[in-house]
Structures are given as C-alpha cells and as structure tokens.
Design brief:
By secondary structure, this protein is α/β, with parallel strands linked by helices. The chain starts with 7 loop residues before the first strand and ends with a helix. The chain has one domain: Transcription Regulator spoIIAA (2-Layer Sandwich). The chain is globular, with a radius of gyration of 13 Å. Strands 1-2-3-4-5 form a five-stranded mixed β-sheet. It is built from four helices and five strands; from the N terminus they run E-E-H-E-H-E-H-E-H.
Amino acid sequence: MSQFRPFSAALRTANGAAIIDLSGEINGAADAALSDAYAQAVLGRPQRLLLNFHDVDYINSTGIALIVGVLAQARKAQLPLVTFGLSPHYQEIFRITRLADFIGMVEDEAAALAG
C-alpha cells in the first residue's frame, strides 16, 4: 500500500501559459486526471504548457511514461513544455531518461513564465 497521496492535477493560467499543478503520486492511477488536465489546458490555446512538480511525492516508471505521453501530445501540437519544481532526484531521472532533452526544466514558476 502506498504511503503517498493520491494524484491530482489542477489547471490555471498565467501570462499566456497553461499551468498544471501536479500533486501526490504520479503512477498508473494518474492517467485519467493527467489526460483530462492536458485536454483542458490546450482548449485555451496557450503559448506554452508548464508542469508544476512542486507538490509531487513520487513518480514511478508508469508515471514517467505518462509524462512522456504528455510530451508527445504537446510536441504534436507544437506546444512548448516546461517543468518546474522537480526535486533534484527527479531532475536526475529526467536527465538519465533523456526527458530533459525534450522538456525544459527550470527551478521555479517565475523562471518558467519568463522562459
């Protein structure tokens, strides 16, 4: 049984960007909520998509695959994708898996919005 909080995703906008605030554990159970948040985000035709990982407890391999899926959809839509709030551990995971080659990674929301 997981000691982490269930996943949730909340959408907001700022400066022409759609921001999805992720929370809890990103695993297979996050699929529907993450897909719904992405679908809602692109309805507003944002200039870029920001994923806020600040409140994420854990990401398993299935969760990484879900993030790759969001990346694929964003690339197909020619929508730049930037992450912020990743812990040093998950920054390293993104580098090892080469996600960092395709997803912008910055420290905080201000840097993401400025980017």
